[in-house]
Amino acid sequence: MKGSRPCGVRASIPTSYSAAEQCCDSSSKAVHTPGSISGLILVLVTLVSLAITGVANAYVLNAVFGRFDLLLVTILLALECAGVAVVLMCKPAWRPVVRWSSLEVVGGLAVGVVFLLHVFSLAPVGMMPVSHSVDCAHQHLLVDFIYRHSSFPEDAGYLYIYDDYPVGPSALAAFLAHLGGIFPVQTMYPIAGLLVAAQVVLVHGVISELLPQSVLSSLVAVLAALGVFLPYSYSVRAFTEHFYSNMLMGNLIVLLALWAVVVFNRIPGVWRVALTLGLTVGCLQSYPAWLPFVVTPLIASLLWDQRTTRSRRFALVGGIIVLVGVFTAVAVLDQWEFITWFAPSRDRRLIPGWSSLGGILLIPALVGMVVLCRFQRQYRGLFWFVLIDASIVIALYGLAWVDWLTLYIPDKTFYFNAFLLLTLAGLGIGRLLDGRRVKRWISQVAIFIVSLSTIVAVNHRHSPPDRYPITLDEYRVAYQAARETPEEEFAYLVRESMTFYWIYGCILNHTHDLAERRDEWIAAKPTVEQWMNDSAGPRRAIVSEISALPADGRWRALATSGDAGIVERTP
Q1: Long-range Cβ pairs for the range 270-279 (8 Å, 24+)
Q2: Among residues 18, 86, 133, 374, which is most buried (max CB within 10 A)?
Q3: 516 CB contacts (<8 Å, ≥6 apart)?
Q4: Which helix (H) or strand (E) holds 19?
Q5: CA-based torsion, 195, 199, 204, 205: positive or negative
């Protein structure tokens, strides 16, 4: 290997598409099509863009008319897609060069499916939420509000902070519930899982872009992406335990920005601008705290593009900064009460460390970091993204210590930086195995075996929980009560305090005294006999297990679903 450029590594920022794209891989004659991007990742980017645009359409309609109609949102989205298609037909130079490598597609789909198989194995019947966190129950308030009213909340006091909360994932959950004809709660968990699965597929795609297109590289990308289960708390427990769905969407936006700066020289200029603005909107819809991690590297990539004059670059970036500022100002005004509630102080949650970040994963990630620093000119997009990301994180930690504020935000950056570590690990592994020859059929078999082994091992180690906060049957009867008799007072003969929290507070919407009532319920959990003998108490009760009630004729069922139901004392 001569010079500083490793054979088989395409430059992230060549001034022309020549040497960086013609360098061959010693393990395969296959190279990236000059200027190409992965077709699978382009499909993923398109789907995310459609989701962001759909929510933005609903937001605009809501601002103009006070509500939105899902059919009208869909029609607007279809017209926008048609407009983009017409532009691409009229402007061939604006079309990206897309490659469809069978190994890339198979590998990307394999890692995504493996992740989803594990996620869905943890879920109860009906894909109900797994998390016992109050964040999950509270977010249901917002999802259900959007679902029932076809509008975004304004001064809906019972929503707590969710009256001003970023609406991205909640709106998508409500839209999907309407399209699927199911309860809105049944879409919350699947969407959270899909958001993280998309991140896993994206990591696989970024690694595939960094390494030469070869049989061995495809296997390395799969191995690195399936390492997502090593930092389990950052990948799976983020929504099975805490349910940070807004943050998960924000994490995906950050990783899309990473992909954009890695392949920025292969994307037509107009699409780099569109991506910058689109990802800005997506970040503001989900987790605005991540905006610096999204906008800064994208703007930097536009500034270092040598294919346009300096004056044009500065003019373009100046215009983008103005638009980003306008979008941010609108979002800040809309979310002001949430921001002022959130900003003063938050407690530390998951603290990054050897174990939480994946343990052994850090070794190949360190190798990848060494490779990145040594060949920074060839991986300039990734290098500058890592540098900007690390600088912001260090600054946040420094600010937190100096001002004695929380370390909540810099700690949480590792929910997306864990995926950046996977990318570096793939780069490190690929570098260590550089020059090895692998036959295509061996790689295909290896991908299948590794994927199958991973899902079996992970499902064995992380089995489904033995209890869930609320079952689909409990939800059905409580939702019926909320729609038909919202003012009715009930006794709650339910399984546990979180079930009470869901039903009383976040389905029946009694949030004004929720904390106090839950404490009372925990302190004196009602029994069937107490309810039967309390003539002064509520005549009706929401019950988790009707089969546990005595068959003595002192009650009758008003509504049932499975073993759950609403019962009434008989005179």
Answers
A1: 270/94, 271/94, 271/96, 272/298, 272/301, 272/302, 272/305, 273/302, 273/316, 273/320, 275/45, 276/302, 276/320, 276/324, 277/320, 277/323, 277/324, 277/327, 278/49, 278/52, 278/53, 279/52, 279/253
A2: 133
A3: none
A4: helix 19-22
A5: positive
Collapsing DSSP to helix, strand or coil, 565 comes out as strand
Q: Where are the alpha helices (DSSP H) in 304-439?
A: 310-334, 336-342, 362-374, 380-402, 408-412, 414-432
Cβ atoms 165, 335 nearer than 8 A: yes
Angle at 122 between CA 117 and CA 123, to 5 degrees: 100
CA–CA distance, 396 with 251 (Å, rounded to integer) = 17
DSSP secondary structure, 168-186, as one string: HHHHHHHHHHHHHTS-THH
3-state secondary structure of 465: coil
User: How far, in Å, are 92, 208, 353, 560 from residue 216 at the CA level?
Assistant: 34, 10, 31, 56
What are the Cα distances from residue 298, in Å, to 68, 199, 384?
A: 32, 18, 10
Q: What is the pLDDT of residue 339?
A: 74
Q: Compute the distance between CA of residue 299 and CA of residue 376 in angstroms, rounded to an integer.
A: 19
Write phi, then psi, for 437 (nearest 5 degrees). Answer: -105, 135
Residue with tokens 């209890």: 467
**Rounded to whole angstroms, how far apart are CA atoms 323 and 330?**
11
Cα distance between residue 299 and residue 27, in whole Å? 36
What's the CA gap between 8 and 434, in Å, rounded? 9
Q: Give the CA angle between residues 458, 464, 468 to the nearest 5°.
A: 150
> Given phi > 0 = left and psi -120 to 50 = alpha, else beta, which region is 156?
beta
- Return all residues near 65 (Cβ < 8 A) that are at least 6 apart: none
Instruction: State how far the Cα of 363 lies from the Cα of 162, in Å rounded to an integer.
Output: 41
* pLDDT band at residue 505 under the 50/70/90 scheme: very high
DSSP class per residue in 41-79: HHHHHHHHHHHHHHHHHHHHHHHHHSS--HHHHHHHHHH
Element (H, E) at 569: strand 564-569
pLDDT band at 437 (very low <50, low <70, confident <90, very high): confident
Q: Which single residue is written with the structure tokens 């926008």?
A: 80
pLDDT tens per residue, range 57-116: 999 999 999 999 999 999 999 999 999 999 989 988 888 889 998 899 999 999 999 999
Percent of the chain whose pLDDT exceeds 70: 92
Distance CA 316, CA 16 (A): 21
DSSP symbols for 70-104:
HHHHHHHHHHHHHHHHHHHHH-GGGSPEEE--HHH
The encoded tokens of residue 531 equal 């309810």
Q: Measure the CA–CA gap between 540 and 488, rounded to whole angstroms.
A: 8
pLDDT tier for residue 27 given thresholds of 50, 70 and 90: very low
* Secondary structure (DSSP) of 395-416: HHHHHHHHTT---HHHHHTHHH
Both structure tokens of 571: 């005179």
Q: What is the pLDDT of residues 537-560, one digit of tens each?
A: 899 999 999 998 988 888 999 999
